[in-house]
Amino acid sequence: MRYSLVIIRIIKDGGVVLVTRLAGMMLSAIAVQQIINGVTQVIQGS
After folding, report:
1. Where mainly located (predicted)?
2. What span, in angstroms and rounded, lies between the C-alpha atoms of 36 and 44?
3. How many whole angstroms separate alpha carbon 34 and alpha carbon 16?
4. Using CA atoms, how far apart are residues 37 and 44, in angstroms rounded to an integer?
5. Where along the chain do its domains lie?
6. pTM above 0.90, yes or no
7. pLDDT digit of tens for each residue in the chain (46 aa)?
8. Could you give the CA distance from residue 25 to residue 27 in angstroms, rounded to a whole number?
9. Residue-by-residue DSSP string for 16-45
10. Predicted pLDDT of residue 46
11. CA distance 2 to 4
12. How much of the chain is in helix, strand and coil states, percent to nearest 5?
C-alpha cells in the first residue's frame, strides 16, 4: 500500500482497470474451484 499511488501513476487508468479485471477473474476462478471441491466431497461422502 505504501507505493500504490506511484504504481497507479505509472500504469495509468487503463492499467488499473486491467489489473482490477484480472484480480476479479482470479477470485472467480478460486471461488469456482472451491465450489467444485465442496460438491466433489459431498458426492464422495455419500
Report:
1. membrane
2. 12
3. 27
4. 11
5. 1-46
6. no
7. 788 889 888 998 899 899 999 999 999 999 999 999 999 999 998 6
8. 5
9. HHHHHHHHHHHHHHHHHHHHHHHHHHHHHH
10. 65
11. 6
12. 90, 0, 10
